[in-house]
TrEMBL record:
Name of the featured protein: 3-phosphoshikimate 1-carboxyvinyltransferase
Presence of the UniProt keyword Ribonucleoprotein in the record: no
Cited function: Catalyzes the transfer of the enolpyruvyl moiety of phosphoenolpyruvate (PEP) to the 5-hydroxyl of shikimate-3-phosphate (S3P) to produce enolpyruvyl shikimate-3-phosphate and inorganic phosphate.
Positions contributing to 3-phosphoshikimate binding: 20-21, 25, 165, 167, 313, 340
Length: 426
């Protein structure tokens, strides 16, 4: 697609789309709970639809009516052997967390996904799930398809995570429901805690002590009504857009404000960004706010350490903010970006360089020297939704016509992205 940038502002009020991480978890937990779960504001992105399809393929009755989803929970052991391979499309969250559930079941399953998923590392879940007694194998010990065969001896463990990953933590948490006893996960840095919050809300005994999560499998999950807060990772594109595009003023309603997710707000405020939050409230253990953003001249900052897991998916759009800021931004400890849907460090460095930005990839991040003007150019998205949306916002800032090779990936996480963008531009 072509983006004609240069003289664009974003103005208006929008609703944030449902959070992707919370939508996945609501389907998974609802499906294995006793009784009915009703989800409101569900994200109808391809990734979450693939999660629904996996559970439908295991016999769960799931009705989708716009963004309301009703699940007839089958209980921990009520899932049925699928007649074919389970397919997660592009979704790392689905394959990694579902594997925890599949490892506790009494039938064999195979789970796979698209080309990008087949290159995503799975040892990180194979190792702890195997320690719990699971029989789980990947191609070359590492990659999807994953083949999971039943095990008689699923047991609780204490696991020291090497990387801060909520997908790995959640995979272990789901399998812990199939054990007898107490599972403890010790995190190097606290990652997003939606599974902890949702399991507690569904009646599971989950405790947190500093960076440890402790699940006692005695209490089983019971179906609930759940409202999915808006996705900070999706509205991040419009927050940065409103900051860097002239004369912009955007209000975003119903944004999830979970501390483990809002590192981007801390960083953008640190950069001087005019961002205000209002109407703090809570739904099913998750905080929620409305956010107001106005155009600001940003300045470069250092981003490293414990904040990284709190903004991991927002680094591509933060790089766009840094490219338009005065001074240097240094991002460190972000090596995980190399194993997402694409190598996001390389993708952003190549694309922003092509727009004339002085930017350099480092071993675990990037160094960006901001500029006042971006040049229109040709962009490669590597079929990665976050790269596509980040570069569209950069394209709106650049003078001239930017050509983006492929925007089809955007529907994995934000199917209404263009509808919302058009509302803000017009
Ligand atoms: O648990 C989740 O819902 C997610 C966790 C993060 O991945 P890691 O667990 O690999 O850090 C994040 O990048 C991904 O988009 C969603
Ligand atoms: C990394 C992402 O998702 P996943 O790991 O679920 O593919 C993302 O949405 O940016």
């Amino acid at each position: 697609m072509n983006i004609k940038g240069g003289n664009i502002s974003l103005n208006g009020e929008i609703d944030a789309p449902g959070d992707k991480s919370i939508s996945h978890r609501a389907i998974m937990l609802g499906a294995i709970s006793e009784g009915k779960t009703v989800i409101y504001n569900f994200l109808l992105g391809d990734d979450c639809i693939n999660t629904i399809n996996c559970f439908k393929d295991m016999g769960v009755n799931i009705e989708v009516d716009n963004t309301k989803v009703v699940i007839e929970g089958v209980g921990l052991n009520g899932l049925k052997k699928p007649v074919k391979e389970l397919y997660v499309g592009n979704s790392g969250t689905t394959i990694r967390i579902i594997s925890g559930i599949l490892s506790g079941l009494d039938f064999k399953s195979t789970i796979t996904g698209d080309k990008s998923i087949q290159k995503r590392p799975m040892k990180r879940i194979i190792e702890p799930l195997s320690q719990m007694g699971a029989n789980i194998k990947g191609k070359n010990g590492e990659y999807p398809p994953l083949i999971i065969t039943p095990s008689e001896k699923i047991q609780p463990i204490t696991y020291y995570q090497k990387i801060a990953s909520a997908q790995v933590k959640s995979s272990i948490m789901f399998l812990s429901l199939y054990t007898k006893g107490e599972t403890r996960i010790v995190q190097p840095i606290k990652s997003r805690d939606h599974t902890e919050k949702m399991m507690k809300y569904f009646g599971v005994n989950v405790k947190e002590e500093e960076n440890s999560v402790i699940i006692d499998s005695k209490e089983k999950p019971i179906g609930k009504e759940i409202f999915v807060p808006g996705d900070i990772s999706s509205i991040a594109f419009f927050m940065v857009g409103a900051l860097i595009l002239k004369d912009s003023h955007v209000i975003i309603r119903n944004v999830g404000f979970n501390v483990t997710r809002i590192g981007i707000i801390d960083v953008l405020k640190d950069m001087g960004g005019n961002i205000k939050t209002y109407n703090f409230r809570e739904v099913n253990n998750e905080p929620l706010v409305d956010i107001e953003v106005k155009t600001t001249k940003l300045k470069g900052v250092d981003i490293e350490g414990d904040i990284i897991p709190r903004l991991i998916d927002e680094i591509p759009i933060i790089a766009v903010a840094a490219a338009c800021a005065e001074g240097i931004t240094v991002i460190k400890n972000a090596e995980e970006l190399k194993v997402k849907e694409s190598n996001r460090l390389k993708a952003m460095v190549d694309n922003l360089s092509s727009m004339g930005v002085d930017i350099m990839e480092t071993k675990d991040g990037m160094i960006i020297n901001g500029t006042t003007e971006l040049k229109a150019s040709k962009i490669e998205t590597y079929t990665d939704h976050r790269i596509a949306m980040s570069m569209i916002i950069a394209g709106l800032k650049a003078e001239g016509v930017t050509e983006i090779d492929d925007i089809s990936s955007i529907k994995t996480s934000y199917p209404d992205f263009f509808k919302t963008l058009n509302e803000l531009i017009n």
